[in-house]
Amino acid sequence: MNEVTVIGLGAMGGAIAQTLLEKGYQVTVWNRTATKADSIVEKGAVLTSTAAEAIRASQISIICVSDYKTSYEVLDVEDVHAALSGRVLIQLTTGSPEQAQKQEIWANTHGAAYIDGAIAAAPTQIGGSHATIFTSGSMEAFDQVKPVLGVLAGHVPYYGEQVSAAASIDLAFLSYLFGSYLGFFHASRILESDGLRIDDFGSMIAGVSPMIGSILQYEGEVIQHSKYENPQSSLQMSMVTVGLLMEQASEKSMNNEFPLFLQNMFHKAIEAGYGEQDIASLVKTMR
Ligand code: NDP
């Protein structure tokens, strides 16, 4: 089975489609803004004019869009319901455990097998050994999609048929990552204040802690060279994740001081007009 469909060609979906093409898959894509497919169509991907048409082209479809609301806007239409029947849907959009549960029921209702996946990697890491995709959902479907996900990430742990598991582990990972981001941005201010290089510090952290470090190494270069435009991970997109951390804490009646702190910091940077820029633009509101 060499065909895969990718719905959503943002920073992450684009990296997924590109990697699958490079690894010899026959890739069909659909994106709301069709022009974003230009470069991968040049490399051999097929662009369709509707999501349903794209889904019909392959047994396995991956969706990776801004959030679950968007995912329903794209998928919850009649011709897509019919196209999904008998096929496998891999949801790689970041979401909450509850959203994963609801979407599995929704997909099964339309005759599709469902795998919830959560990407613990930046787009540039897709296809590399440091990338991880947490998965859960139908075991039978996982066996079918494992080779495809294995092309995208060096680690593809499967957490069983409890479909909420991947999203819970992902939110736990993101909580850890976002704590690292804030610590790193404060570290950048310490170095800036003494005229020292932030990119060199990022490389040092990558040596100490390769996976998270390679993300922070990238952010160190962004800050050192003020390359905040055309981000790998925008502030606005990361704010969706902060919202999920708040939502999960509320659903489980947990202490929410940490996500609230993140939310205030992110809100300040978005208010300052940095929403479309790299997450590292947070540092500008810390100066
Ligand atoms: P982008 O903002 O780069 O892309 C968003 C995608 O969603 C685009 O394809 C966009 O289409 C589509 N979209 C947004 N609104 C709509 C709509 N109303 N109808 C149809 N399509 C829509 O986000 P990313 O690619 O960075 O992120 C995608 C997912 O991957 C998110 O859930 C994110 O959390 C997750 N992820 C991202 C990581 C990262 O570092 N970037 C890391 C790990 C996970 P259009 O091009 O037309 O705007």
Show the helix and strand layout.
Elements: E1 3-7, H1 11-22, E2 26-30, H2 38-42, E3 46-47, H3 51-56, E4 60-63, H4 68-75, H5 78-84, E5 88-91, H6 97-109, E6 113-120, E7 132-137, H7 139-152, H8 165-192, H9 198-208, H10 210-224, H11 235-251, H12 257-274
Parallel strand pairs: 1-2, 1-4, 2-3, 4-5, 5-6
Antiparallel strand pairs: 6-7
Helix pairs in contact: 8-10, 9-10, 11-12
Bound molecules: NADPH dihydro-nicotinamide-adenine-dinucleotide phosphate.
NADPH dihydro-nicotinamide-adenine-dinucleotide phosphate is lined by residues 8-13, 31-33, 36, 64-66, 70, 73-74, 93-94, 119, 122-123, 232-233, 237, 241.
Family: Belongs to the HIBADH-related family.
Domain 6-phosphogluconate dehydrogenase NADP-binding: 4-158
Organism: Paenibacillus polysaccharolyticus
